[in-house]
Structures are given as structure tokens and as C-alpha cells.
Design brief:
With about 290 residues, the protein is α/β, with parallel strands linked by helices. The protein contains 11 helices and 8 strands.
């Protein structure tokens, strides 16, 4: 059972999110069901941010985080408040005294105001946060941290069947004792996109999606199983972050996490090499 590697993403609890999300923001009743089911099925961590609308309030309103012993990771976004003010707000909304992890959400904001990292280190020293780190988008951002000898405990980054740009850094991160969390396992639903529904901007990605969908059809494999199990199978990855719109989706994600990959499956995914690197970042899809 690989459920302990799954991290419950909660962005949908506060805002509408995802290229294929037609359900809208998750209701409080469904949030409660999801948290109950997650805890019952071995999921130990959840990920949120004060930038995710009222996600933190929805989690706090459930009153389930403490009693189910779910570790919370939140993030400090680009904002006018100090890290301490923002963290205190998050703790209050979540109904907890401390966080398992607190990440800088927007790397460019950190580069503009590097002193915020010193403040976050101070909050860790006071016991308000167990682990501190960064949410990244590009390998260049990671290189900046490593080159400047910034010490962090957790790194969150995109990783999926198409986007494996950070993989070469995994050994170094493990050597430094960093906990690696990955997100975007389905590349915001792109793997499932119907060919006739591709936006013009994403047309260069269609050939890769077609190759993936054809392989799964030939092998009688569910694309979701392949996508999740591939990330879960990476020994260096400590957590695979997945957001959900409802409890049934969480159940499906857990089933995917426990799918047994073949060596042929892994070799196939490894053979996919996306040349249009800029389209691996959904920010560039608009």
C-alpha cells in the first residue's frame, strides 16, 4: 500500500481549479467526507495555502485535522503581510498550533524580498513550523537555492510522465536530506484531454498525449493508474500531491497509487521526451 506517499491537495476546497474541473469549488460537507476518507486510508499529510481562497477555513471548519492527526503543509504567498502575520492567520483558520511544513509559495517574491526566509527560519526555531521550504516551478529556481547554499527541509515541484526536468537533481536533494514532494501528476488533466478539445496553444503537446493514450489503450491500462503509479514508484519522491473535487476521486487516486507498474510501463514513460519544455508549465498555456 502506497497511500502514505499520497498528499491530499486542497486547492479545490477554496477555488475552482484545473483544466478539466467542471464541478466547481468543493462544498464543506464534501470536504469533511474527503478528510475522513483520507485519514481512514492512510493519507498522513495535506497541502494548502493562504492563497487558495477559503481552503484553510474549510479545513479548519471540518475540525478533523487534529483528531485524525493529519499533518498540514501551508504556504506563504506574495502578500503585504509578514510571514509571521500570515502564518498566525493560517494557524487560526486551520485550528492548529503549528504546521508540519510551511513553504514559500512564489519564488520570485522570495528573490525580491530574501529577508522573508530569515523570518520563516525564525518561526521554525520557535516551534511554530517543523519543516520549511519552497514551492518551485523551474530547475533554475532550485539551482539558485543550491548555489546560494540555502538550507531547506521540503521542496515541492512539478513532476509527471511528461515533466521530469527535476529528476537529475533528486540525488543531490536526498544527499541534503530534503523531503521531495511532487505535484501536477496529471499535468492539470492534459493526459485525458480529447484530441478535438485541444486549445491552439497546446497543439504541440497533442502528439505526446496521443502516444500516451494509444499505449494505454493497447496495453489496456488506465492512464490515471500509469500516471500516479509512475510518480509513486520513484524512490526519491517522498510525497505525491493530488487534489480532488470529491470523495470518489480520492478513492480512485488511492487505487491508482496501488497499481502495479510493469518494467515495460516504466520504460515506455521514460521514452517520452517533450521538446516543448515551456508548455510543461500550465502558466504558459494562457
Amino acid at each position: 500500500m502506497m497511500n502514505s506517499k499520497l498528499i491530499l491537495g486542497t486547492v479545490q476546497f477554496g477555488v475552482n481549479y484545473g483544466i478539466n474541473n467542471n464541478a466547481g469549488q468543493v462544498t464543506q460537507t464534501e470536504v469533511n467526507r474527503i478528510l475522513e476518507y483520507a485519514a481512514e486510508n492512510g493519507i498522513e499529510k495535506l497541502d494548502t495555502s493562504s492563497a487558495y481562497g477559503n481552503s484553510e477555513e474549510a479545513l479548519g471548519n471540518s475540525n478533523l485535522i487534529n483528531c485524525k492527526k493529519i499533518a498540514v503543509i501551508s504556504k506563504y504567498p506574495r502578500c503585504s503581510k509578514s510571514p509571521r502575520e500570515c502564518l498566525n492567520d493560517s494557524l487560526k483558520k486551520l485550528g492548529v498550533n503549528s504546521l508540519y511544513g510551511y513553504l514559500i509559495h512564489h519564488f520570485d517574491f522570495y528573490q525580491e524580498k530574501p529577508d522573508i526566509w530569515t523570518e520563516i527560519e525564525q518561526l521554525k526555531s520557535e516551534g511554530l513550523i517543523q519543516n520549511i521550504g519552497f514551492s518551485l516551478y523551474t530547475p533554475e529556481q532550485l539551482e539558485y537555492l543550491v548555489n546560494n547554499k540555502v538550507k531547506f527541509d521540503i521542496i515541492q515541484l512539478p513532476y509527471n510522465m511528461f515533466d521530469r526536468q527535476f529528476e537529475s537533481y533528486f540525488p543531490k536533494l536526498k544527499e541534503l536530506g530534503v523531503e521531495i514532494h511532487t505535484r501536477s501528476v496529471f499535468l492539470q488533466g492534459l493526459f485525458f484531454k480529447a484530441f478535438d478539445a485541444f486549445p491552439e496553444k497546446l497543439m504541440p503537446m497533442r502528439k505526446y498525449v496521443e502516444k500516451l493514450q494509444n499505449y494505454c489503450k493497447e496495453q489496456n491500462i488506465n492512464i490515471a493508474n500509469l500516471a500516479v503509479a509512475y510518480s509513486i514508484s520513484k524512490q526519491a519522491i517522498d510525497g505525491v500531491l493530488m487534489g480532488v473535487d470529491n470523495c470518489n476521486q480520492l478513492q480512485s487516486n488511492i487505487e491508482c497509487a496501488n497499481y502495479n507498474l510493469s518494467l515495460e510501463d516504466i520504460a515506455f514513460v521514460d521514452s517520452i521526451e517533450v521538446k516543448e519544455k515551456e508548455l510543461l508549465n500550465p502558466v504558459n498555456w494562457k
